[in-house]
Amino acid sequence: MIDLLPLGGADEIGANSYYLNIDGTGIVLDCGMHPQKTGLDSLPDFELIKDKPVDYVFISHAHQDHLNALPFFIKRYPHVKIVTTPQTRAVAELTLHNAISILKRQIDDESFQIYSHEEVDLLIKSIGYKAYNDVFEVSGYNGGKGKIKVEFYDAGHILGSTGILIQKDDFRIFYTGDINLSTQTIMSGAVIPESKVNLLITECTYGATDSNSLNNWEEEVNKFTSSLNKVLNKGGSILIPVFSLGKLQEILATLYLQMKKGKLTETDIYTGGIGNKINRVYDYNRYVVKRNETELVLHDIPQKSIYEIKNTEELFKYPAIVLASSGMVVESTMSYILAKRWLKQKDAAIFTVGYMDERTPGYKIANARRGDKIKLSDNEKETEVKCEIKKFRFSAHSRREELMQIINRLNPDNVVLVHGDTEAIDWMGSSILKLNKERKVYISETGKEISFA
Predict the structure, then answer these.
(1) Torsion of CA 216, 219, 223, 229, to 10 degrees
(2) Which residues of the chain have pLDDT under 70?
């Protein structure tokens, strides 16, 4: 018997965590925090498995919504064995330490105990790692029946991201994590298993997005480059909010390569913070994983530090491009601080390059136009938008047609839909059933167990 119990992230993007009980062996897929919530509300509901066997945690990648609850989880289950790719382990060491200072700024609830740097050090040392396509076996410590085979597949999302194939006897489960079949500037497209699976647990991020509204990566680069040149050639500076992991590396590489090709006006690029440390992990692994531009060393790209700027006016003295985290312009982050200044600058521009949650300041900015008046947060005064605002889609997730390709190739008997809003999950569910009415499709809910024979 196989049971699946979502602990978080079932019908939304955030706090992703899914529990599998496979004949008595307990496996948790991901331990994420919700980026738009704080305190206990930001965590998966680990109480749901307090009386169940918990033996292993497999982490699909090192983004906050898939990783950052792991230290809280390990406090409850210190015996659990953690396994991921070596690249995710390396990045997790950086991001979990960085998260501590962020949590301290966000949370003033003494009942919510934030983990320490020492605890992160111990956690990282305990993480086991397996390379892509290196099959390994696991079994439960107390009563798990038989061996379970596990294999990681390159998910093409960010460095180290993985889809996870789990096989017990003849029953095969594939968890996509965050998956991208398309090629980015650095990352190559995902690799998926060759043969049929019995259960597919798939993300649905772009299930509600009409792909006709999305350019392919190369087309978007050309459009992006043209728009950058227009602002730079008028003497303006551009702020680009980015996630420090994944989006920063892709956009930095894109800017540099476009400059080297003579397609983009050469100008100063500002970065800084943890993103620069993650760049080194990308560089170190450039020959180890399947990726594009293997000769490109991100650390060698000329960059200036945002954090060495004493007065933001320096960023407008000459045209510049600033890559600042966070990607959704969350309050108190560098992109938030700079955005407040940028909105008042008529010759400047803010270019957004990825998904924005509707509850974030970044969403308000991305959907504003010159002359609009917006409030970035309840604590801020209303601001008139004087700069140019442009949206670009450099997606690290599969389009909905690509998700359907995965389903066609894996031909699952059962599909569980996760990691998407209601509209995205509804589109995916109806599209799957149109192709095969015999296939069982489940809309997952946190706390609602699904059983498979």
Answers:
(1) 130
(2) 104-112
